[in-house]
């Protein structure tokens, strides 16, 4: 089946108006700068457009890959004869102040960047998300992965998520239930649900402390810079930390002498054992092989099996 032809005919028949690109390079859209072309790239602006694309893909059995900010993914090198569906066109942030309370609910669409959300909250004097300052990626992706920064997880602040079920085509609000969440684990992983919006509970700070809050945001951004987060294309931390191992994964990788180890143009960062960086022209195969090598080496030397958190599409 010709995916491009199916989508082009769909556009002609329906007048579908959201952003659609053909034979699109995906690498520039990811923080790792890795990946080949996709037959179709779609960026819907609302839930109805997203539903239309999902319905089309199901009708013609077209494979779909969902991307948010693409900060935790390594896209395939080969041509993808399917649809890459990006949520980044789905924007919007608004607040709902609870009457008589110190908390404020902040609702953000899945396609909003974490940077925009943190900046919005600091401008409004809302405390809670400052440790996520400088985190690349989207709100939807952060919720999906239960992103964790400086000992704070997204789930610590989440009230609920509004999702679209790709099997039933229902939209529903999923309230936060602590038993469904864990370290870098959310109930949306490996399920047929697309996150549309997320609601966070934040604290109001006095107007006199807003500049202090902005300074904290700046501090965490500078901390990321000092740790080399933005020096090379990467997907951030590669392996989850496991408290049972006694040390962070980066320290374990360091102790195995793997800092700087390279396969192709993918390298364990010389400055951080839990980063793999793209030296320029790295492929998904390079990264996969390097991840496998690190996992096997750590297992053989330390007896620990590291769990990757990056997603290979």
Structure in a nutshell:
This protein has 313 residues and is of the alpha+beta class. The protein has seven helices and 18 strands.
Could you spell the SSE succession in H and E letters? HEEHEEEEEHEHEEEEEHEHEEEHE
User: What is the residue-mean pLDDT, rounded to a whole number?
Assistant: 93
Radius of gyration: 20 Å
Report strand %: 25-35%
Describe the main β-sheet briefly: 6 strands, antiparallel
Tally of strands: 18
How many distinct helices? 7
> What's the overall geometry?
globular
Summing up helix and strand content along with how strands pair, one would put the structural category as alpha+beta
Distance, first to last CA: 21 Å
Estimate the helix proportion, in percent. 25-40%
Poorly predicted residue ranges: none
Describe the 3D structure:
By secondary structure, the chain is an alpha+beta fold. It has helices at 3-14, 47-59, 114-124, 139-145, 210-226, 249-255, 284-302, and strands at 19-25, 37-43, 64-67, 73-74, 80-86, 93-97, 103-109, 126-127, 148-149, 152-153, 158-165, 171-175, 193-204, 234-237, 262-263, 266-268, 275-278, 311-312. The strands form five sheets. Strands 6, 7, 8, 11, 12 and 13 form a six-stranded antiparallel sheet that branches. A four-stranded mixed sheet has the order 1-2-5-3, covered by helices on one side. It is globular. It starts with a helix and ends with a strand.
């Amino acid at each position: 089946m010709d995916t491009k032809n199916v989508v082009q005919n769909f556009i002609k028949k329906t007048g579908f108006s959201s952003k659609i690109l053909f034979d699109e390079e995906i690498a520039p859209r990811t923080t790792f700068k890795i990946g080949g072309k996709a037959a179709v790239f779609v960026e819907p602006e609302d839930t109805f457009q997203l539903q239309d694309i999902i319905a089309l893909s199901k009708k013609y059995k077209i494979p779909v890959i969902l991307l948010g900010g693409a900060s935790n993914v390594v896209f395939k090198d080969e041509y993808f004869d399917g649809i890459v569906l990006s949520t980044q066109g789905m924007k919007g942030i608004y607040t709902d102040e609870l009457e008589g309370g110190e908390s404020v609910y902040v609702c953000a669409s899945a396609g909003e960047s974490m940077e925009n959300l943190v900046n919005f909250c600091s401008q409004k004097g809302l405390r809670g998300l400052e440790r996520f300052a400088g985190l690349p990626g989207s709100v939807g992706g952060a919720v999906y992965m239960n992103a964790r920064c400086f000992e704070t997880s997204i789930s610590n602040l989440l009230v609920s998520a509004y999702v679209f079920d790709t099997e039933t085509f229902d939209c529903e609000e999923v309230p936060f239930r602590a038993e469904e969440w864990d370290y870098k684990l959310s109930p949306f992983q490996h399920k047929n649900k697309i996150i549309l919006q997320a609601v966070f509970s934040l604290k109001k700070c006095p107007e006199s402390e807003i500049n202090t809050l902005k300074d904290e945001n700046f501090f965490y951004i500078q901390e990321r810079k000092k740790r080399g987060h933005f020096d090379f294309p990467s997907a951030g931390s590669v392996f989850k930390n496991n408290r049972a191992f006694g040390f962070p994964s980066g320290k374990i990788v360091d102790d195995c002498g793997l800092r700087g180890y390279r396969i192709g143009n993918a390298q364990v960062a010389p400055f951080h054992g839990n980063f793999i960086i793209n030296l320029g022209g790295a492929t998904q195969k390079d990264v996969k092989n390097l991840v496998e090598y690190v996992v096997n080496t750590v297992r053989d030397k330390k007896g620990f099996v590291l769990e990757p958190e990056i997603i290979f599409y």
